[in-house]
Design a protein that fits this description.
The chain is an alpha/beta fold and 518 residues long. Helices cover 44% and strands 11% of the residues. The strands form 4 sheets. A 4-stranded parallel β-sheet has the order 1-4-7-10. A 4-stranded antiparallel β-sheet has the order 6-5-8-9, with no helix packed on it. A 3-stranded parallel β-sheet has the order 11-12-13. It is globular and about 70 Å long.
Length: 518
């Protein structure tokens, strides 16, 4: 979390950014193998302790053997230098050891009172989550495979487990308290730097079917089906997200309390929230267990209630809401969200003039209530996109339904149209290299009326490798690709903060959007 605060200080203080948008910080199961995708969490209500900065916990100062923590950190850094990927299992094993040491340090009276207040505020939801984590450490991360008496949080065997493993359960409550503290500090630092919004969090569509929320909320989730998406132009085989959707009848029966609690929690220390696949609050593509994504069907939700809850909680928090409304969307849905002040999402490559010649949509015609970006985490960074990496990778993985040559030809034609548009408006010369093109694309973005603009960190440093390929699980190392520069060498946050390329892109956006002094 301290890195997040530092990134916000750099973006806001050095480059006048108004917010930092992060991928979901939702919790993953505390067991091996740790789920790499932030969009398939064990819980959306709570956060991952993998993001904690151990040294920032006040009790760390009173740790009698801090040298052991320094050694753990040095060992992990040495291991990371030899591994072309993000090894969450090794990182969590080391961090858990260090956190356990700090947890055992006696807390001053005031700190203990603060911990007790946090537990009271979070109540049963925190107890259930911490209990699931302790159970997962003992019996594995799939609660369907636990002893029968432990498969529902209301069972007597679960209460007996908690009484016999009180310290293990309390440790996981304590981890969430530390995360709450550090998230609050990061948001405070971002706002004090001058950011208008600060940190914008990301809410995933759903949760892992075997995880903490699925266990605690199993009576409100449809466990026999999974959510996904029908086939579209970019994901031609459809998508199965392996996530049990909300049961609309049970949500209504409970007065939408689980959903209200989720939205309130994610906005507690945020200036905004991006809701992934916000169309899921209107309808979701339900796929029966064992069926392919092409065999699903839409199930509708009471969108008036769900969007109303989002708008109310955002108003209470003084936060903005961005809905990811890409893909198959009924036109009236965008009008509905617009009327309620919820921003949409625009990705440059997908902004085409569908009512005219089909080429790039002129900047002045983009939506105003929108967060606009050149790319997204489901596409390669722009340097990779410009060389057709998104087509080649999908071809290698068998995700195309047309010959790769045809896909590449269409992609080259679309990119040529965008380059011609940049030249038409004077943002690109006849002789331009990769960096010139990327600068031109972001300057074009700044000409749109969109309320929020996003500069992808991968583009800022010249990264080329895809972070996530939809439609795959282990076929590609999704969410395990480290941030790298144009040369392919991994970068630390300290490298980002002094990157000339990042500075140039940020300056281009700032100059194009900030009012000029008269």
């Amino acid at each position: 979390m301290s890195d997040l605060a530092d990134l916000a200080v750099w973006a806001g203080g050095e480059h006048d950014a108004g917010y930092v948008l992060v991928n979901p910080l939702h919790a993953a199961a505390p067991t091996k193998p740790m789920e790499p995708s932030p969009y398939l969490p064990t819980s959306r209500r709570f956060s991952s302790p993998l993001y904690l900065r151990v040294e920032a916990i006040p009790e760390f100062a009173y740790l009698p053997k801090r040298g052991r923590v320094w050694k753990l950190r040095a060992d992990i850094r040495a291991r990371a230098a030899k591994f072309d990927g993000i090894d969450r299992d090794a990182a969590w094993a080391a961090k858990r050891t260090a956190l356990k040491m700090v947890y055992r340090v006696p807390r001053p009276a005031g700190r203990q009172l603060a911990f007790e207040a946090y537990k009271r505020r979070e109540g049963r939801a925190l107890d259930d989550f911490a209990t699931w984590c302790a159970l997962a450490e003992k019996y594995g991360a799939n609660w369907h495979e636990w002893p029968a008496g432990l498969q529902h949080p209301a069972n007597a065997d679960v209460a007996d487990f908690v009484s016999r493993h009180a310290s293990a359960v309390d440790f996981h409550r304590w981890l969430q308290w530390q995360l709450d503290d550090q998230l609050a500090a990061a948001q405070s630092q971002a706002v004090r730097t001058g950011m208008a919004l600060g940190i914008m969090h990301d809410l995933a569509v759903g949760v892992h079917p075997d995880g903490a929320d699925a266990w605690a909320l199993q009576d409100v989730l449809a466990l026999g089906v999974t959510a996904g998406a029908p086939p579209d132009e970019f994901n031609q085989l459809g998508q199965n997200w392996s996530q049990p959707p909300w049961r609309p009848d049970q949500l209504e029966e409970l007065g939408y309390q689980p959903f209200r609690a989720l939205i309130e929690a994610i906005l507690r220390h945020a200036g905004g929230v991006r809701i992934d696949h916000i169309i899921g609050l209107f309808r979701l593509w339900w796929i029966p267990r064992g069926a392919s994504p092409t065999e699903g069907t839409y199930v509708r939700y009471n969108h008036d209630a769900m969007i109303g809850i989002v708008a109310l909680e955002a108003h209470r928090a003084g936060a903005v809401v961005v809905g990811e409304d890409l893909g198959t969307v009924e036109p009236w849905v965008r009008h509905y969200l617009h009327a309620r002040g919820i921003l949409g999402t625009s990705i440059l490559w997908f902004e085409l003039d569908r009512d005219g010649h089909g080429g790039p949509l002129a900047a002045e015609h983009w939506r105003e209530l929108c967060l606009s970006s050149v790319t997204t985490h489901d596409l390669p960074p722009t340097p990779g996109y410009l060389v057709g990496e998104h087509v080649r990778l999908r071809h290698q993985l068998g995700l195309l339904t047309r010959p790769a040559e045809d896909e590449l030809a269409d992609d080259r034609a679309e990119q040529a149209a965008w380059l011609a548009e940049l030249r038409r408006v004077g943002l690109l010369g006849a002789e331009a290299d990769e960096e010139d093109v990327i600068l031109g694309l972001y300057r074009y973005l700044a000409r749109t009326p969109s309320r929020l603009l996003a500069l992808a960190l991968t583009d800022a440093v010249g990264d080329r490798r895809t972070q996530n390929q939809p439609g795959t699980t282990n076929e590609y190392p999704n969410w395990r690709v480290p941030l790298t520069g144009p040369d392919g060498n991994p970068l630390l946050l300290e490298d980002v903060l002094v990157s000339p390329r990042a500075r140039a892109l940020a300056a281009a956006l700032r100059e194009a959007t900030m009012p000029r002094p008269e």
